[in-house]
Amino acid sequence: MRMSRYFLPVLKENPAEAQIVSHRLMLRAGMIKQSSAGIYSWLPMGFKVLRKIENIVHEEQARAGHHAMQMPTIQSADLWRESGRYDAYGDEMLRMKDRHGRDMLFTPTAEEMITDIFRAHVGSYKDLPLTMYQIQWKFRDEVRPRFGVMRGREFYMKDGYNFDLTKEDALHAYNRHLVSYLRTYERMGLQAIPMRADSGPIGGDDTHEFLVLAETGESEVFYDSAVTDLTFGDRDIDYDNVAQCAAVMEEFTTKYARTDETHDAGLFAEVPEERRKTARGIEVGQIFYFGTKYSEAMKATVQGPDGKPVPVHMGSHGIGVSRLLGAIIEASHDDKGIIWPEGVTPYHCGIVNLKQGDDEADAACDALYKSITALGLEPLYDDRKERAGGKFATMDLIGLPWRITVGPRGLKNGVVELTSRRTGESEEMTPEAAVQKIAEIYAQH
Ligand code: ATP
Ligand code: MG
Questions:
Q1: Looking at CB atoms within 10 Å, which of 164, 241, 248, 365 has the fewest?
Q2: Residue from 90, 138, 132 nearest 115 by CA
Q3: What's the pLDDT score for residue 206?
């Protein structure tokens, strides 16, 4: 992409309404525009990162054997009356009537809809296990929408639902989700710690939330600092292997890590004092096992091996796709701007032309642009007639992890400069070597 043709409405001033850094930087980097409280338009750069995050979620769900599908945003109240949640959900549910006076609502989550699909089409235990998910816009009329996309009213969420014959099978689905989520967040450059949590209006017994530690997090969390040493890495897990998934589950959830809702001061006191930490966290996902709560209320049964109908065991699993943009920025920025992890960066590298209009510099930038594009990567070329300082400031603000700087002086010696956004370190090398280095970096992501 050439900056001169892009739509990137960067703001020079700090927007007064933004209280936290991620909100401020998303506005300043021209990623989002608020339309009303907690409701945003996603401008090209913000939308690009949203898509990258979404793609990682899709890839990891596919790896775990889960089926992507999509359910409507506007749903009939009737289904929600069956489960009893139409009244129970309260003011967070946005309700409306169609022209015939029928009660409708904008989906805050989709347990009812998926259970209805399931009961219409699945009749036998032989069709299990089954996990389907969607990535879809949700609406919750939050009392206090704030912090930009972190607590929106309209937000983008992955919600998945597993259907199993027995509790044991459903707990495997639970563990499988935990494993897939660990991989998902790490690919985004994030450490998200599974913590024992409270189930809220979804209901159920077993649930973990995934929290990213950040001062601006809305949840208070208590944990054994040993949990921050755990990384999933590139383990090759067979998602059908019950014991393997259970082992990962045990490894990542045995040490003390809880949100304030489930915090137990007595148990916490058993953690060695120097490892006992209290901090703030951003909830980026949650997994639930809730057994037969919905299948019994909505008569979602299958014929068991003995021919008798049994209600299926279910769980639901969510990832805050749009909130993740805020969480990633909270975890990765400095006073100049965003620092995108390679896995989610909107463009793979920036090209800064120090002397636009100079034949040699222009030609060198064009050649770099072509070579990087030929690798299947996307450069963002700042080809504007602006002074170098302004170009650097924009690149630092929008946070591309790598920048190639091209100027007449370097070109005289046959070199360009490759700079890491994270460390600020620069290295001079030939344009070919810079392209090669970019290729190597992204071969790992
Ligand atoms: P919270 O406690 O933050 O209100 P929740 O527990 O009600 O969230 P879930 O039903 O678990 O939310 O939804 C799954 C994921 O969707 C959450 O882990 C979170 O990352 C994201 N999410 C929930 N509410 C919002 C919101 N208002 N804005 C943006 N993302 C949200
Ligand atoms: Mg939650």
A1: 241
A2: 132
A3: 86
Would you place residue 445 in the very low, low, confident or very high pLDDT band (cuts 50, 70, 90)? confident
Model confidence pLDDT, tens digit, residues 119-129: 999 999 999 99
* Protein residue with least CA distance to atom 3, ligand 1: 283
CATH 3.30.930.10 for domain 3-338: yes
Ligand 1 atom 1, closest CA: 283
Cβ partners under 8 Å of residue 287, min gap 6:
174, 177, 178, 181, 207, 208, 315, 316, 317, 318
Let me know: does 66 contact 132? Beta carbons within 8 Å: yes
Ligand 2 center to 210 CA (angstroms): 9
189: pLDDT strictly greater than 90: yes
* 347 vs 420: CA distance, rounded Å: 14
Q: Which helix (H) or strand (E) holds 177?
A: helix 167-187
Quick check: do 3-338 and 349-443 share a fold? no
Write the Ramachandran bin of 267: left for phi over 0, alpha for psi from -120 to 50, otherwise beta: alpha
286 lines ligand 1 (CB under 6 A): yes
Q: What is the Cα–Cα distance from 405 to 428, expressed in whole angstroms?
A: 9
Average model confidence (pLDDT) for the chain? Answer: 96
Q: Domain 349-443 belongs to what topology?
A: Rossmann fold (3.40.50)
Residues 354 and 417 sit within 8 Å (Cβ to Cβ): no
| Closest atom, ligand 1, to C-alpha of 209 | 18
How far, in Å, from the CA of 19 to the mean position of ligand 2? 23
- What tens digit of pLDDT does each residue of 276-302 get? 999 999 999 999 999 998 899 989 999
Can you tell me the distance from the alpha carbon of 64 to that of 172, in angstroms, rounded to the nearest whole number? Answer: 12
Q: Is the pLDDT of residue 274 over 60?
A: yes
**CA 200 to ligand 2 center in whole angstroms:** 8
The 10 Å Cβ neighbour count of residue 147 is 22
Please tell me the predicted confidence (pLDDT) of residue 201.
57
Question: Does the pLDDT of residue 200 top 90, yes or no?
Answer: no
Mean pLDDT of 148-156: 98
* The predicted structure's pLDDT at residue 100: 98
What 3 state SS string does 289-304 have? EEECHHHHHCCCEEEC
Place of tokens 């506007």: 74
